[in-house]
């Protein structure tokens, strides 16, 4: 321990400094500098000012400002206030413990919800077998063409009407090898072929030799029109 005020006064006198000079240099009013040397700390506005002024004045006189602040704390500051910085250091630990507790609570909630879901699933008769689903019947394949025409020796113009020569057009185009078989559906077809010898005819799944340019096709077979 050392005398704060006496030490400050001796340092000022050794340097030949008066209060007016010190006030200009430190920006601290002369009466507060005098109060520091006389250790009349109650004259200063508040304890915070005491520490700040003490540090500034000591360093201005070439002394260790922190040493004077520590001496002031040890002699004039209550024990609880000196312990405040220590308590601030342990706050992160409490924060970590709080975060850990939050995580544990969250895990516990998840575990409870899992048990509840499993229990509800079992009570509803759940099993590992997936529920049976109703499948729609596969669409029926289109009916077998009544007439299939294949170009074997060349191309030919072909026109087919449903029913008779005035019926709806079932096909109207050129049959050629590159296009492959031409399938024409219907229950009765009236057909015109430009070059029948260039073509191969399949009537209701049966191969037929047809040389007529105009003919009628039914399930029973074919006949000239």
> What series of H and E elements makes up the topology?
HHHHHHHEEEEEEEEE
Please give the radius of gyration in angstroms.
Answer: 56 Å
Oligomeric composition of the shown chains: single chain
Helix content: 40-55%
Q: What's the count of strands?
A: 9
Question: How would you characterize the largest beta sheet?
Answer: 5 strands, antiparallel
- Structural class comes to alpha+beta
Can you characterise this structure?
The chain has helices at about 5-15, 20-25, 30-35, 45-60, 65-75, 80-90, 90-125, and strands at about 145-150, 155-160, 170-175, 180-185, 190-195, 200-205, 205-210, 215-220, 220-225. Strands 3-2-5-8-9 form a 5-stranded antiparallel β-sheet, with no helix packed on it. With about 220 residues, the chain is of the alpha+beta class. It has 7 helices and 9 strands.
Provide a concise account of the structure shown:
This protein is α+β, with helices and mostly antiparallel strands and 225 residues long.
Which tags fit this structure?
alpha+beta, five-stranded antiparallel beta sheet, four-stranded antiparallel beta sheet, 7 helices, 9 strands, rod-shaped
Helices and strands in order:
Blueprint: H1 4-15, H2 19-26, H3 30-37, H4 47-60, H5 65-76, H6 79-89, H7 91-123, E1 147-151, E2 156-162, E3 169-175, E4 182-184, E5 188-193, E6 199-203, E7 206-208, E8 214-218, E9 221-224
Antiparallel strand pairs: 1-4, 1-6, 2-3, 2-5, 5-8, 6-7, 8-9
